[in-house]
Give the backbone structure.
Amino acid sequence: MLKRSRFNLMVDKEDFYLLYNTLTKKFSMITKKLYDHLDLLNEKECYQLKQRGFLINKNFDEKVILDYTFNKQRFSSKSLSIIYLPTLDCNLDCDYCFQKTYRNKKREEVTSEAIGSWILSNVTNNIERIVINFYGGEPLLEIDKILNLKKYINSFTSKDIELVSSLTTNGYLLDEDFIKKFKKDSTISGIQITIHDIENFDTQYHLQVYENIRKTCEFHPEISLAIRFDVNRINHKYIMRVLDNIPKANSLSITLVPILPWDEDSAKNPHKYFLYEDSSYQELFEFKKTVKDLGFKINTRLDYSCKMISKTNAFVIDPEGFIYKCDGMAGQNEYSIGHIENYKLNYKQIYIENLWNIWDKCNQCEVLPICMGGCKYRNFYNNYSANICNKELIKEEIKFYMDAEDLDVLKIIR
């Protein structure tokens, strides 16, 4: 006997359902009558749906696969992931920046060689890739640190280990000279430019960023460039003005990230902060469709799981060499799990012990394989409460993806 997977998400399309299984990440298109009455399926159709995870044996517990998948990601030893903040300082002064408190302080900063030495000390025989995201602050204020770290790591790693680099920046200092140097000696997975203060879209900062984006697209089309906007319910028109200055290039994509609740008050009163809520996420995806119709490629997020706290082989390093499990905590030494000069890391930090687990209330949720309990950072700052939930956002994201993309779909239509 077969039953439907509890991880099937369904989009109603008149005579058929478009299905997405959040555990197997597979799509299917099936006539409504067949999905509603499984006994009408023939043997081949049952086999095909079972292979893609839409149907499972009646007595099978999918939690077994989910636990295996989660632990495989958590304890993976093939990749070492690093977020390195060469500085917490910035050349902008955005009101909402959560790192603003920790800027312009005197610090005993460590050298790129010391950072590189610690990274290499964590390269075991199983490691195939070292993945480094340069973050901040504004990382391009410390270009020499970035380039020196890459050079150091490359000089001591074998050809069997791939160094993959990415960069998150506000784009103002992203000039031609840096890009040429950044491309050297590593695979570039991408550069993200987050455009700030979009209400004032024609300042000197903005005009320089637009020029840097155009030059990067023109002279380095092999680099994937993601332009990120933080979106709320009232800033759509400002984003549209900025997009008038952004080229439509094959190497460029747009990332529209909804500003999500950050504490109990914003979760209970999203309208007060002009945030989306469960009943209004459709507005966000209508806006995404508008931007897509302009000819821009839209980045779709189908993975909301934590990539740092939930992985044992992932670390954040701040300018002083303190090590964390989340970039949101960088600069707050009380949440450090160690220092690059102290090779014994403290995994007993209370926030790690509590946040490695998945909330009990999430265990029956159909989007659990996508979020795995959601953002650990936000839940930590809300006393380990699972009240801030992205379930409806995730479901709308999947629906948007299913409507907008060319999919590998199993079709059972008759």
